[in-house]
Design a protein that fits this description.
The structure is a homodimer of 366-residue chains.
Chain A (H helix, E strand, L loop, with lengths): L8 H5 L2 H9 L9 H12 L5 E5 L2 E5 L7 E7 L12 E3 L2 E3 L3 H17 L6 E7 L10 H8 L8 E4 L7 E3 L3 E10 L3 E2 L9 H13 L7 E2 L2 E2 L3 E10 L4 E2 L2 E10 L5 H12 L8 E8 L9 H10 L3 E3 L6 H6 L4 E3 L14 E3 H17 L2
Chain lengths: 366, 366
């Protein structure tokens, strides 16, 4: 234990495992973030160097020091439903429990830095938002960007999603398409009187199995596209040749393509297996975000801390910042592979790596 | 109108269109055949040359003249649910309505011949049974063959399913198989971490699309096998690589194969696309029936009336007679393509062709 008054005192006092455990102990399943938002708001309001605004269950705290650069650091308050892991459990340097990795560990780091660094070298906006784990219509960051863009504006942004201290830049886009293939019904004893739409789907699915996605390198990061069938539906009765097959595709596309270009690509891939009367419908789409590593704040964060960098293959809310013209990256404690699992947990070292790197950026600027 | 007492009197009195309409007017959806069974039983009991037995809603009437040969003529009492066509409508020489083709036209012919030919050249057993349009467990013919085989025994059998006066011999077997293909789940942004079971199913379905069934010729009749996917199920969530695909197949096999041989054939066709851990399960199976045209009663029916003959590709209850060692064929009025449709109907000429041919067989024997 460090001596009272030592340079390490404030760090030593805030045990990030205990701080994260305190946040895990406040349930905040999507649509029920109020109690956690209250706690976060109270903590932030106690710091006189912060201006705090609350919009619904979204809490925004800002320094206003007139610095040349402003960094936005955002994290979501909500979790998926508990799976027998609703209560935090500390075991040495590991905290187990719902949301420990995704992403209350990140929130604990944010609260720690927001309340202890009163005079950062750059201005900072801390965004704690609701509704990330559910449909986009409930997303608090989306709400803020739409209704209060002044509150969340900045020069660059970091999103505290679990990356285990790696800088995961940009994100790939995601598009779901429903492909409807048509046939003609007939009795299965006389199938030549009809046409089996499921057999037609076979050729499409086999083509997907052979699909090799592009692997474009952007800002030195390799993205990797994918095209997967996620649902197939078809069938009328046990003795009827099916006249309809619906194949739902999920396409992940790199940030060098727009959604329109991505759609055109998918249509080209499947064109051989489509006929007049078939349909291709985009069910939903989320744009990709470019890596943004060129921005001095993100470049400095990487360089001064010798961070590993990789392309973010999944879609995250960094895309919302990118769409608002704010370069953004994912950077947080915890392993994303543990998110949404019963075994969700976070390690002390992961929390401290992120705290130290982000703290360094705030203290020294770009 | 023929003069009273003319040779045509009995034919003229019984208008088969009107007789069928009277049966269509008595609803007899599966599981609700009681009222129609009552009516049929009453009509049959009024004929002193018949011995009548009733087992549940199955009615059996027999001559007992000690003839050398006994023909069984069977027809089901039940219909599928009405589709706005529950009431009979006569339009000239056409009767429209639920069950007109499948198979109250056949029942009308059976009742007419059963009650008017008191001294046939062969003994006849008339079987009116319930529960043909639903699961086999409800099938009245199955019940009689199992519980009262003495009532339905004979040298050959005819089933009055709609064949529009063609002798449709034997029937193909039908087997449903559930093929379960396995993969491994992964996030669709990193599908190479898993394996898409639906993509695997694509190769299987494409192989089915290329399948060419055998066309064996038996007793001069060409059968035609088929193998169709009737259902495909698979999918976990819009962002998850599916780890399971279940393809349900329906195989129709000719009477020169047993069910075991048919199953082995299907397994051979799909073997290339199976891997350890996959499953093939026979969901249900119904045996094929050989054509039986060698039997003198069926051969005579064909020859004396110059009937067209073809293989029955669908499965019918003739298979139950065949399994009991009784050669059987399908022979009835009405077009099977109209069965189970809103536009179900039967034409007078079709009713009369069947009545005349069957009446001739009964009067003259083999």
């Amino acid at each position: 234990m460090p001596a009272p008054g030592s340079a390490l005192a404030s760090t030593a006092v805030t045990d990030l495992i205990e701080a994260t455990a305190a946040l895990v102990a406040v349930p905040s399943e999507s649509h029920h973030e109020g109690a956690l938002a209250d706690l976060v708001e109270q903590r932030l309001r106690a710091a006189p160097h912060l201006r705090v605004d609350r919009v619904g269950d979204n809490v925004v705290a800002r320094t206003d020091l007139g610095r040349e650069q402003r960094l936005v650091v955002a994290g979501h308050l909500d979790t998926v439903p508990a799976d027998g892991n609703g209560s935090p459990r500390v075991d040495g340097d590991v905290l187990w429990g719902l949301g420990s990795a995704d992403m209350k560990g990140g929130l604990a780091v944010m609260l720690e830095l927001a309340t202890t660094i009163a005079e950062p070298a750059i201005d900072v906006t801390w965004v704690f938002y609701a509704g990330e784990e559910v449909a986009a219509v409930h997303n608090g960051l989306r709400t803020l960007l739409a209704e209060r863009p002044d509150l969340v504006d900045g020069d660059a942004a970091l999103l505290g999603e679990p990356t285990d201290g790696v800088l995961e830049v940009g994100c790939q886009g995601s598009m779901r398409l429903a492909v409807t293939l048509r046939g003609a019904r007939a009795h299965t004893a006389r199938p030549w009187m009809g046409r089996n739409a499921l057999h037609r789907a076979g050729h499409l699915l086999a083509a997907l199995d052979a699909y090799e996605g592009r692997r474009p390198v952007l800002d030195g990061c390799e993205y990797r596209e994918a095209l997967q069938a996620v649902f197939v539906e078809g069938g009328v009765a046990g003795n009827v040749v099916p006249d309809l097959a619906v194949v739902t595709l999920n396409h992940r596309f790199a940030p060098d393509r727009t959604a329109a270009e991505a759609r055109a690509h998918v249509e080209q891939v499947i064109a051989l297996h489509l006929e007049p009367g078939d349909d291709v419908e985009v069910v939903d789409v989320a744009d990709a975000a470019p890596p943004g590593l060129h921005h001095p704040l993100l470049a400095t964060l990487r360089a001064r801390n010798d961070l590993d960098v990789r392309a973010k293959l999944g879609w995250t809310d960094v895309s919302r910042f990118a769409a608002a013209g704010i370069p953004a990256a994912n950077f947080g404690p915890g392993d994303s592979a543990l998110a949404h699992t019963r075994d969700e947990r976070v390690e002390r070292s992961s929390l401290e790596v992120v705290r130290d790197a982000l703290g360094d950026l705030l203290r020294h600027g770009a």
